[in-house]
Amino acid sequence: MLEVRDLQVSYGGVVRALRGVSLDLPLGKVVAVLGSNGAGKSTLLRTVSSSLRLHGGAVVGGTITYDGRSLQGLDAAETVRRGIVQVPEGRRVFGRMTVEENLKAGGLGARDKSTRAAMRERVYAMFPVLAERRYGRAALLSGGEQQMLAIGRALMASPELLILDEPSLGLAPRVVGQIGGVIRDINTAGTSVLLVEQNATMALSVADIAYVLDVGEVSLSGSAEELSQTDDVKRLYLGRATVDNGTPAGAATADPAGVTLSRWQG
Amino acid sequence: MTDFLSYLVNGISLGGIYALIALGFVVVFKATEVVNFAHGSLLVLGGYVIARLHTDVPFVVAVLAGCAVAAVGALVIERLYSWRLRDSNLNALAILTIGVDILLITELTRRFGPDILSTGDPWGNKIVDLGFAEIAQARLVGIGVTAVLLAAFFVAFKYSSWGIAMRAGAEDGEAAALMGIRRGRVTMTAWAVAGALAAVAAVFLCAFPTPGLDASVRLTALRAFPAAILGGLDSTAGAVVGGLAIGIAEAMTSGYSVKLAGGNLNDVVPYLVMLLVLLVRPSGLLGTKELTRV
């Protein structure tokens, strides 16, 4: 399991992005991290995937361990070989390469090279649209297809822990629902998932445990079910009316992938 | 017409050699995003090793040794950079390559003295009559060797793990790192390949009908730089197209003795062709244009 204890991260020695974050991800679970822009969600993921240095950040305090071994001091490629693979925010597929080449690139970090061809077929089975477009350039896929490719590419390294940074970003509601289903399938097949999302509806529907980050600190945590019942989460992230403001405004949230905005109540 | 065909075949041969050198510029640029200004000196270094060794060992062994030394030379530059300068900006590396270039060529010039060395190639000054054109045997072999090397390179670049890692890293370094691609190894391989290709190019650049190897060959080698630019500095296929274009243009202007402002046009034609192409296509013939779907 992944254990983050009192993690403190700063950028350029100046900006303190995380101020003592602790988080547990038990084996086989889906953990969601919610929070607004600038709350430190991406920083947390970068620390886990050891890509912090690429952004000029550094851990200044606390510990982060996976399976009891520290993840600090590794580079991103070594972290992949420990079984932790991140799907970057904004998909970042290799646009000039074909779909198949993207998957091959994802397989380069696999610990067991012999399973790569079989893994590719599993990814194609999971995302038939990728199999149809396997010789087409990745840049020409739609946003949803690119997200599926980005997830498939990460799966090629056979991760034990898959990290997803805002997979629903910029996607149509129907596609967001599909991505939620994909995350559930991946988890059912035995992979732990750490999910950062602004779309709290989707995140809480797939997660077992959730944390809310607020300006670099954990402000709320608990089981996803509990958390989705709390007033703060309802008000801030789910757009549901709470007892405080009286007027019900959350009819649209019946759709699990639905819109998360509500109007200000006067 | 016979003249034309003869110039064309010579141009293709010369262009193939330029393509090998230009490919070195491109591979290094794709891996590290910097132009290796020491590439011409590395070529002379590889040639020098071959010229010194060929009297004692078989020619092929001497060539392999030359390739190895040039590859190691390129690796030294790459390691110097990633050892201390990785987090500084890329201009530092460009300046570093200029510094290495000056050091290396100064030392090689001292070692050459007034001599012009032979690489000991087995083709000598034999001429082959193709029926429609006459060509030096070395040039003909050059076409064959270049074609084989370029084909091997492109197969590796398209299908091998190294090629895929290289292209993924060139396109998005962070995403590649997150996929577990070890960029350090990929980059080192790229520099080494560039150095080795330069040493092979040295053999054919110095073979008959050119007089032989001395430090001035570096300037000839640098004519491949406009070839890389006009093809598109980040395009491997562009390096080949650019190399052939420059080679043929040079052979034609030289063959027909075209004069420009009292001098021989063939001396400046690579740069002229480059300028003309860049006026029409600023990113080179096959350089990257943004490919996105909105």
Secondary structure layout:
The complex is a heterodimer of chains A (266) and B (294).
Chain A: E1 2-11, E2 15-25, E3 30-34, H1 41-48, E4 57-66, E5 69-70, H2 76-81, E6 84-87, H3 99-107, H4 116-126, H5 128-132, H6 143-155, E7 161-165, H7 173-188, E8 192-197, H8 200-206, E9 209-214, E10 217-223, H9 224-229, H10 231-238
Helix pairs in contact in A: 3-6, 7-8
Chain B: H1 2-32, H2 39-53, H3 59-85, H4 90-112, E1 127-129, E2 134-136, H5 137-159, H6 161-171, H7 173-178, H8 183-206, H9 217-221, H10 224-231, H11 236-255, E3 259-260, E4 263-264, H12 265-280
Antiparallel strand pairs in B: 1-2, 3-4
Helix pairs in contact in B: 1-5, 1-8, 1-10, 1-11, 2-3, 2-4, 2-8, 3-8, 5-6, 6-8, 10-11, 10-12, 11-12
Describe the structure.
The complex is a heterodimer of chains A (266) and B (294). Chain A has helices at 41-48, 76-81, 99-107, 116-126, 128-132, 143-155, 173-188, 200-206, 224-229, 231-238, and strands at residues 2-11, 15-25, 30-34, 57-66, 69-70, 84-87, 161-165, 192-197, 209-214, 217-223. By secondary structure, chain A is an alpha/beta fold. In chain A, the strands form 2 sheets. A 6-stranded mixed sheet of chain A has the order 6-7-8-3-9-10, sandwiched between helices. In chain A, a hairpin with a 2-residue loop joins strand 4 and strand 5. Chain B has a single domain, classed as ABC transporter involved in vitamin B12 uptake, BtuC. Chain B has 12 helices and 4 strands. In chain B, strands 1-2 form a two-stranded antiparallel sheet. In chain B, strands 3-4 form a two-stranded antiparallel sheet.
Number of strands of chain B: 4
- The coarse silhouette of chain A is globular
Cα(first) to Cα(last) distance of chain B is 51 Å
- What is the H level of CATH, i.e. the homologous superfamily of chain A? P-loop containing nucleotide triphosphate hydrolases
Q: How much helix, percentage-wise, in residues of chain B?
A: over 70%
Number of domains of chain B: 1
Number of H- or I-type helical stretches of chain A: 10
Oligomer: heterodimer
Q: What average pLDDT do the residues of chain A reach?
A: 87
Spatial order of strands in the largest sheet of chain B: 1-2
End-to-end gap of chain A: 46 Å
